[in-house]
Amino acid sequence: MMSVVLFDDPHTRRQLLPFTFTRPISGIRCGILTLTEKWSMWLKTTPFFLTETYLSLLYPSAPNSASYLYINGSLCPDPTLVQAILYLPLESQLRNPQTNQLLAVRTATANWTPDDSLTKNLDVQLFEEPYTSIEQLWDIFLKNGDQLRMDYAQLTSDRSSAAISDEFTRCYKSENIFLEEGVTIRAAILNAEGGPIYLGKNSVVSEGAIIQGPFALGEGAVIGQGAKIRPNCTIGPFCKVSGEVNNSILFGYSNKAHDGYLGNAVLGEWCNLGANTTNSNLKNDYTTVKLYDYSTRALEDSGQLFCGLFMGDYTKAGINTLFNTGTVVGVNVNVFGAGFQPKHIPSFTWGGQAEGFSTYRYEKALDVIQATIGRRQLTLSDRQQDVLRHIFEQTKPDRTY
After folding, report:
1. Quick one: 113 and 7 in the same domain?
2. Which tens digit of pLDDT belongs to each residue from 147-200?
3. What is d(CA 321, CA 273) in angstroms, rounded to the nearest whole number?
4. Which of 66, 227, 257, 394 is 20 to 30 A from 97 in CA distance terms?
5. By residue range, what is the domain housing residue 179?
6. Which UniProt keywords are given for this protein, alphabetically ordered (predicted)?
7. Are both 147 and 249 inside the same structural domain?
8. C-alpha distances out from residue 45 to 87, 171, 367, Å
9. Which stretches within 26-137 are classed as H helix?
10. How far, CA to CA in Å, does 162 sit from each of 177, 239, 377?
11. DSSP string covering 174-224
């Protein structure tokens, strides 16, 4: 029997921090689904993972198998790519001839790794068709619109949408709108002329909300009253969102429940933005945005004109917090106070630009997480605590205030 394994390329993983502190690359959400969920749907199997040792506590590696199909975890599946990977012969590799990016490996070797010297001995198959991969932080929002369309087509194929019963909700191009069971909508405007709109199971769209597709609302998520949701947004499962949101992704269980602007931004899980928290996504001089690079520990040019906020899991921002263009905030940060915050705030940090910063004590941070997820009737497992402890220790050198 063959095991499918989604592997992390070490360089790409560093480029996708802070999100890959707490998940493999394939755990990133782009479109309706995470990359893991996409591959599971396309291959009709449950994949395993080849990631950092400390993350394997939560993301299991493959058991002993007759053979292994290793797939680059940054890849988004499409029909041509999936076919090329599935037809890859044993003891061979699939590469992009232009960039030499390793796309997939099929081997009987159980202990293969992306930097394995044995890879060079495998037969090389070339994949010359265009494909989508998530290799930089900004790729997540840049490629979200196309991935929303791709996931929508896959998830709704040969299925019928639940009906919209509310007579005061106005829909444009209703054939591009799909509701799972249990969706509640009241006096909203859904405009799918620019792309599809997907509303997940038991999600809620409140009175006065205006949504432009492409857009996805995850299971149990809520769009608040009067929200303005512009194109290319994904609101993941069990999130609560209001205010104005544009080309942004919230992975899951995160809240932006009040007014304020979020644009060209990505939030991990269990984040919270206080009332009127806003990020800038465009510089006044229209030059490209620089943001923090974990590899160089410096600000690097993204080449992007529009680039907003990137916030790691379990991070919270107090009311009226202002984030500059290209701000990168780590895991488990509590940030608040006057003025624009720094372009990079390390993981496990407490404070703000005006008040100063200090280390967010691990025990205190853990208490806050337990309280946060406890409100959703969930608990933090011992393995999750071990992962957070590792991140706390790993990021100590970053906390030089």
Report:
1. yes
2. 999 999 999 999 999 999 999 999 999 999 999 999 999 999 999 999 999 999
3. 8
4. 66
5. 137-253
6. Acyltransferase, Transferase
7. yes
8. 16, 36, 36
9. 35-43, 79-86
10. 10, 21, 28
11. GGGEEE-TT-EE-S-EEE-SSS-EEE-TT-EE-TT-EEESSEEE-TT-EE-
> Distance (Å, rounded) from C-alpha 361 to C-alpha 238?
28
pTM: 0.97
* Beta-ladder partners of 345: 329
- Residue (of 207, 208, 183) closest to 197 by Cα position: 183
Contacts for 271 with CB less than 8 Å, ≥ 6 apart: 250, 254, 255, 311, 312, 313, 314, 315, 316
Q: Give the count of beta carbons closer than 10 Å to the beta carbon of residue 374.
A: 11
* One domain, residues 60 and 83: yes
Task: Say how far residue 4 (Cα) sits from the centre of its chain.
Answer: 22
Could you read off the pLDDT of 63-114 as tens digits, one per residue?
988 899 999 999 999 999 999 999 999 999 999 999 999 999 999 988 899 8
Give the whole-angstrom CA distance, residue 238 versus residue 231: 20
Per the structure, how many domains does the chain have? 3
